[in-house]
Amino acid sequence: MKPQTRPLPRAASAATVLLILAAIVASFVYLAIDWRVLFSGESLRLMSKFIAEFFPPDVSPAFLAKVGWGTLQTLAVSALGTLFAAVGGGLLALPASGRCGVFFRPAARLLLNVLRSVPELVWATLMVLAAGLGPFAGALALAVHTSGVLGRLYAETLENASREPEAALALSGSGSVAAFAYGSLPLVTPQCLAYLLYRWEMNIRMAAVLGFVGAGGLGQLLYFHLSIFQQRQAATVLIAMFVTVVLVDALSNRWRRGLAPAYA
Fold first, then answer.
1. Total domains in the fold of the chain
2. Which residue from 44, 97, 119, 264 lies 20 to 30 Å from 140 (Cα-Cα)?
3. How far is CA 46 from each of CA 38, 138, 164, 235, rounded to the nearest angstrom?
4. Which secondary-structure segment (H or E) carries 143?
5. Whether residue 64 is found in the same domain as residue 191
6. In terms of Cα–Cα distance, which of 157, 236, 152, 253 is closest to 201?
7. Domain, as residue range, for 205
8. pLDDT tens-digit profile of 106-149?
9. Measured between alpha carbons, how far is 189 from 180 in angstroms, rounded to an integer?
10. Shared domain check, 199 and 125
11. Are residues 39 and 131 in the same domain?
């Protein structure tokens, strides 16, 4: 007996693919992109001239010292913002995972959605108005947005963790806090640390961008030198961004691989 085919799911999949292709075509038509202008000889000449102005990068000792200070500032902003977010996200993850009662769960999840749905640049603009120009505004912006992201990840990790060790400790007479600390927390800590490292890696990139709205670091240096058409200095800042991200990516991946056996 031949197995029966299921035409409805296949038809639904085909319809979904056609809708996606139609949306892509409609987007190109709506944006009215003129590829001929983009790849015309004049456009290519202007782009080549602009790129050539970035070379050679400025490697004078005075400017390298300024870039080094900006790199440290960017790292500090990302680290401080991620640290604040780890605390805020962890506190919000408890009610969001249902640990504080049914009533607080939807309210906490709504707050987490609000925090992570607003981009970091918008939060940075608000924090600059509240705290003034400087790195602290960038750290606050990263902390607010990342709290929403980490809080959601931590809440899902808590929900998926086994409750049996915590329940066994509670039945043996341990209090609710002790049962959670010794029963559930050790199970979720390695994965939560991996999430934390990944978000810190992403926040370093974002901290460099937040400087465009006055939040300090390499982004502010890049915006300043681009705005006065000092492309050689801007090239040095871009190289510093690239090297910083590559080094942190390598360290973060190594740390996460070290944590993997703990929760594999």
1. 2
2. 97
3. 11, 34, 66, 18
4. helix 135-160
5. yes
6. 253
7. 59-263
8. 888 899 999 989 888 888 888 888 877 778 888 898 999 999 99
9. 12
10. yes
11. no
Which positions of the chain have pLDDT values less than 70? 1-9, 166, 256, 258-264
Same-domain status, 65 and 139: yes
Distant-in-sequence, close-in-space partners of 207: CB < 8 Å, separation ≥ 6: 74, 75, 77, 78, 81, 138, 142, 215, 217, 219
Whole-angstrom Cα distance, residue 260 to residue 264?
A: 6
Q: Residues 138, 233: one domain? A: yes
pLDDT at residue 8, as a whole number: 53
Nearest residue to 150 (alpha-carbon basis) of 100, 97, 101, 107: 97
Does one domain contain both 24 and 85?
no
* Cis, bond preceding 56 (omega within 30 deg of 0): yes
Identity of residue 151 = G
Read off the tokens for 73.
């500032």
Which pLDDT score, from 0 to 100, does residue 264 have?
42
Among 149, 147, 123, 145, smallest CA distance to 215 is for: 123
Q: Which residues have C-beta within 8 Å of that of residue 95, sequence separation ≥ 6?
A: 101, 104, 105, 107, 108
Q: Has residue 1 been placed in a domain?
A: no
CA separation for the pair 98, 104 (Å, rounded): 7
Q: How far apart are CA 76 and CA 200, in angstroms?
A: 11
Contact indicator for 151, 90 with CB cutoff of 8 Å: yes
For residue 210 the two structure tokens come to: 């937040």
pLDDT for the residue 94: 86
Cis amide bond preceding 57, omega within 30:
no
In a domain, 163, yes or no: yes
d(CA 118, CA 208): 18
